[in-house]
Design goal:
Elements: H1 2-7, E1 9-10, E2 16-19, E3 22-25, H2 26-48, H3 53-78, H4 103-121, H5 126-150, E4 164-170, E5 182-191, H6 194-215, H7 222-241, E6 248-249, E7 252-253, H8 254-272, H9 286-289, H10 299-304
Parallel strand pairs: 1-4
Antiparallel strand pairs: 2-3, 4-5, 6-7
Helix pairs in contact: 2-3, 2-5, 3-4, 5-6, 5-7, 6-7, 7-8
Length: 328
């Protein structure tokens, strides 16, 4: 019995630290770290496709706030009983510090915002989508560490050796405060660490996407769609392991139903999407053509517009059918 207890994963004693009156939240730090990692990798991947890295920064400017709003909207809609009804305070909808962001809503609205930006700039979206897809799921893996500090999104009670111990937390007045309080050392329950399972799944999916991209020379947005399918497949299994309170549809958890629908739709879309014989890099010509002065005979411009393998900076075989490329 003692051996099992020692083998369990302990929760952090707290998830919030204070620098004077300023709260330092571990969840926010994990989210920020994930965003930085995703930005860094996306810059490299999009540049390898010949894209203008300024578009990555512009996309981040619109995607991050849109993602936060979309994630909050999804959470409120799928957990509306916590905010609306007798005895509820609807203004808590805007209390982001209390937690509650749905990744599917964040990706949906963030993607819509980026689509609008690229449409306005008249820049092909598919190369950017394929560049950012794998980096998003890696960022999600990093963000899941925040759930560990918040003691949330865990699974059913279990006695497996790697069970997560959930501690009773209280604030400075001794009141129950699971998010902002400190642990009393009392173990409330031991549960499946589904946050850890999902984090491992996301890292594995990140590696799978990079492999599939190179192995099958995926492009034209298919890497991004495969990211959606990979994430939602894992989320289906995580939802099946959870038994915390949640709104339901036809007796099933909302997130389980939504994940299943998105997984089926994205899988079908992946196989129906254009494959093309040309290299999948789909270079955006303005990413490099505007930064280099073409030679008088036009050969340098043609070289610049060559397709680039998404994993390297080396030109790949064959040219992309590019509507921006002038005929000679």
């Amino acid at each position: 019995m003692v051996t099992e207890i020692l083998a369990n994963i302990p929760s952090p004693p707290q998830g919030v630290w204070y620098l004077g009156p300023i709260p330092i939240r571990a969840y926010a730090l994990c989210i920020i770290t994930g965003i930085i990692v995703a930005l860094t990798l996306t810059l490299r991947r999009y540049k390898a496709r010949g894209g203008d890295t300024d578009m990555v920064w512009d996309a981040a400017i619109v995607a991050i706030p849109a993602g936060i709003i979309g994630g909050r909207m999804y959470h409120v809609i799928t957990d509306h009983d916590s905010y609306f009804g007798p005895g509820k305070d609807p203004w808590q909808v805007f209390n982001f510090s209390a937690g509650g962001l749905g990744i599917m809503g964040a990706v949906a609205l963030g993607t819509l915002a980026v689509w609008g930006l690229f449409k306005y700039r008249n820049v092909p979206l598919a190369p950017f989508a394929d560049s950012v897809g794998p980096t998003i799921i890696l960022a999600q893996a990093i963000g899941r560490l925040g759930n560990y500090f918040n003691q949330e999104l865990y699974g059913r009670p279990t006695d497996v050796p790697w069970a997560l111990d959930i501690f009773y937390r209280v604030d400075e007045n001794g009141n129950f405060a699971p998010l902002t309080g400190r642990s009393t050392g009392e173990i409330v329950t031991s549960v499946h660490p589904t946050f850890l399972y999902e984090m491992i799944w996301n890292v594995a999916a990140f590696a799978f996407l990079l492999w599939a991209e190179r192995r099958f020379r995926l492009g034209h947005g298919r890497v991004f769609v495969l990211y959606i399918a990979s994430y939602t497949l894992g989320r289906i299994f995580m939802e099946l392991m959870r038994d915390d309170a949640a709104n339901t549809i036809f007796g099933l958890r909302v997130n389980l139903v939504v994940s299943s629908v998105i997984f089926i739709a994205s899988t079908v879309a992946f196989f129906l999407m254009r494959r093309g014989r040309e290299n999948p890099g789909e270079v955006d010509p303005r990413g490099i053509a505007e930064k280099r002065k073409p030679e008088a005979d036009g050969h340098a411009a043609d070289a610049d517009m060559q397709d680039v393998d998404p994993g390297t900076n080396a030109p790949a075989r064959g040219d992309v059918k590019n509507p921006h490329k002038q005929k000679r």
